[in-house]
Write a structure and sequence with these properties.
By secondary structure, the chain is mainly alpha-helical. The protein has a domain of 29 residues. The chain is 83% helix and 0% strand. Helix 1 runs antiparallel to helix 2.
């Protein structure tokens, strides 16, 4: 005999699909967070590399002294 309009088997399927939907939502949010964090970290790495290159160019042109070059290089590495 059925319990109400749906049997207990139907209730189990509803619960299962609810959990599947929740798991997919969590995966979607985690994926978005990962992509955003990955994008920011790669942008920061590129800008840091570019800053070091500019510093090397300024030192090569004689615009800054060796001490100033070393100091700024340490600051950029930190």
């Amino acid at each position: 005999m059925m319990d109400g309009m749906m049997g207990s088997g139907m209730m189990a399927w509803m619960l299962l699909w609810g959990l599947v939907g929740l798991a997919l939502l969590v995966l979607l949010i985690a994926g978005i967070v990962w992509v955003v964090r990955w994008g920011f970290s790669s942008t920061q790495a590129r800008s840091s590399e570019r800053a070091i290159e500019l510093l090397k160019e300024r030192y090569a042109r004689g615009e800054i002294s060796k001490e100033e070059y070393e100091e700024k290089k340490r600051d950029l590495a930190a």
